[in-house]
Amino acid sequence: MSAEAVSSDALAGAALAPHVVADPDHIVVRGLHKTYPGTSVAALSDVELVVPRGTFVSLIGPSGCGKSTLLRAVAGLEGFDDGSITIFGATPEEACAAKSVGLVPQAPALLPWLTVRQNVELPHKVNRRADRRRAERERKHPALSAVSAPGASSGLDAFADVDSLLDMVNLTDAADKHPGALSGGMQQRVAIARAFGLRPEILLMDEPFSALDEFTREALRLQLLTLWQRMRTTVLFVTHSVREAVTLSDQVVVMSARPGQVHEVIDVDLPRPRGADVLLSPQLHTIEDRVRASLQSAWEAGAAPVDLVAG
Ligand SMILES: Nc1ncnc2c1ncn2[C@@H]1O[C@H](COP(=O)(O)OP(=O)(O)OP(=O)(O)O)[C@@H](O)[C@H]1O
């Protein structure tokens, strides 16, 4: 999957089902079911989730509980069998078509022949060309304007310009280097700067730090916090790290497996910005313990061995 805003011209079938109420301020997932062909157990079953605009929400749970499937469904990249998803009142397909959805996958997927600066700038250049087509689509489908981020696509504002973005992720000195000359952590920072620079309305991050060592992860968490604090993009973040989920999030969604379901939603009631005082506070450790306990009961709930692939 690409790190750029998900692009799709697929508007076919974008109309909401009559029973779905468009909510302009939330991502709303209702009764989502998904069973992959050839499997006997649902990857997602009756998943309910409400994500308020401008919040940072982490999905955590045992391997195979459907975190990536849910993320891809929200991105409009994965179909589902039943239920509904609305993104600030629009369908995932509409949000994709409006380039309102950004994705940061595990691997940074940079273009090796471009410099760091050119990699971060590239989507803006591409989007400038797409803007005319997008304006035309929005005229035909007014619901799309409701999910377009202010300053989305080519509209760089005061702090979303490339220099500021590179500065926020500490890459100013590497701006003219090529990806091959960067460490894994630096490459992921380029991918994150590029994704935020597009000013998507929502950013979906699928274990973006999983390939990195703990020291680098810690540093990237702090940089992501700084970036998010300024951008306030709505983020759905998949992780296996309790520390990461609690440090970054307003809410941690604990999922259970077999079938994939939301087990518990835990509020992270910690002040922002999250400086050292917050990150070392006993309150943070208390919330981490709550998440760990919830993960344990989620694991026990889905622990029964089941053959996932029929036949
Ligand atoms: N393309 C596919 N075909 C068949 N089954 C699939 C497919 N993709 C995922 N699954 C199954 O769906 C379930 C959910 O997978 P998913 O990747 O969403 O889980 P996850 O929570 O993201 O896992 P992990 O933490 O290991 O990345 C798993 O049982 C997985 O085996």
From TrEMBL:
Q: Does the keyword Transport apply?
A: yes
Q: Where is this region: Disordered?
A: 125-150
Q: Which Pfam families match?
A: ABC_tran
The record, for SMART domains, names: AAA
InterPro entries the UniProt entry points to: AAA+_ATPase, ABC_transporter-like_ATP-bd, ABC_transporter-like_CS, ABC_transporter_ATP-bind, P-loop_NTPase
Lineage, top-rank taxon, reads Bacteria
Query: What positions does the domain ABC transporter occupy?
Result: 27-282
Keywords tagged on the record: ATP-binding, Nucleotide-binding, Transport
Q: What CDD domains does the annotation carry?
A: ABC_NrtD_SsuB_transporters (cd03293)
Do you know which Gene3D superfamilies this protein is assigned to? P-loop containing nucleotide triphosphate hydrolases
Instruction: Extract the GO molecular function terms from the UniProt entry.
Output: ATP binding; ATP hydrolysis activity
Q: What is this protein called?
A: ABC-type nitrate/sulfonate/bicarbonate transport system, ATPase component
Protein source organism: Sanguibacter keddieii (strain ATCC 51767 / DSM 10542 / NCFB 3025 / ST-74)
